[in-house]
Amino acid sequence: MSEQSIQSDTILSVRGITKKYGSVTVLSDVDLDVRHGEVLALLGENGAGKSTISSIIAGLVQPTTGTMTWMGEPHAPQSPADALSAGIGLIHQEMRLLPALSVAENVFVGRLPIRMGRVDRSGINRRAAEQLRRLGLDIAPTTLVRDLKVAAQQQVEIAKALTLNARLLIFDEPTAALGGEETLRLFERIEQLKAEGVSFIYISHRLDEIARIADRVAVLRDGQLVATHETAQLPVKTLVEEMVGRPLDRMFPDLDEAIGETLLEVEDITSASGAFKNVSFSVRQGEVLGIAGIVGAGRTELVRAIAGADPIAAGVVKIAGKPIRLSHPSDALDQGIVLVPEDRKAQGLILPQTIAENIAQTNYDQIAPKGWINPKAVDRFARVAIERFGVKGRAEQRVNELSGGNQQKVVIAKCISRNPRVVILDEPTRGIDVGARAAIYEVIAGLARQGMAVVVVSSDLDEVLGLAHRVMVLSRGINRGILDREKADRVAVMELATT
Fold it and tell me: Which domains does the chain have, with CATH numbers?
């Protein structure tokens, strides 16, 4: 494509964009172009500046210096409403839904159609249902958002954007909570919209998606644009090294084969809500068991039940051969079972509090056994955990100031500081960049080396296959089989997952 044709095909042009917060520069002299009807993948580690440049384009943040043009005209939105009216929509990584409102009300919030002086509820329900069907989401538009699982909430965010009739959609980790089937449906919809002339900026840490959906790739590192590629058909190794600025020899740690006695046994347990039925498996000391399955298979519900968070209608959970009672999460904690939840911000952390305060939350019985909380003791306890798990932050630093990877390390540090026997991690690297993922994987392998029984639930099949000694596959709440590492590959897992 000639230089002249590229310029005429460009709908968004970003030139010299710099963003500073006080003395800290988060973007430095970034140039970026988006063309008509393309998917531009924007890659980089957490903190590289991807969300900042997206927020500037979408009117949430104003640049310190630099200019933009949109459809050939100057573009300087002062608010998201300005960008939306121009035809630019942003889907955030962190979902911004209103849990007390229905799905349809969330899809059309801020632009509810009025008919004869009243909100046209039948109209918004009909139009919302249409978008949900396009995404393959079989839920009633009148359902309250708070009653939806994380994956379904993510799809509501996407449906919301699709009703905007935008000419540029910015997707920030749109598939972080989606399984393979839901991701394919989203990609099909993106291809349809591309054919209609819609453009996309697509941010994802799942590099296998980039070759499937993107036309071009731009890579940010430390607030600077370090590479652009006219094709997305690139070796993952090349992209990773551009993102982190150093060679990354391997992603997954070596597995220790020194596995001990059976520690966790689950015998024919059935969910009180019907999410899973008659599930049995075991995990030994030093072993990592992966749990795979498409969204809706019952993975999260299963591990929540084992952790005492959801009721069990039938079946037995044993620790070291002894049945345990699980009527509350504290019962599981007392038996040495900890759960790192899938939504770290909503379920695992208190964001405005410090790292030390978060780590102390479930460990006061160790920090203050007599009931008197000494701030110095809290600080000492937290510093040990911070060093042990390689958290990049100070004990007195607020958690909401940390990157996603370091927030996840704080959740893990909080849980493991209890010295558990069984560690369950639900989506341990959701929304975390490649470099930070490798560090989390090493932490998980380290837990197994210390003799803990480790269970990992993930929508990322490569993650499950790379981390686990064995893989259990759930489908529609039923254990379809457990595969040894030698027999576990993508084909074998997906055959069971779609049974």
Answer: 3-244 (3.40.50.300), 262-497 (3.40.50.300)
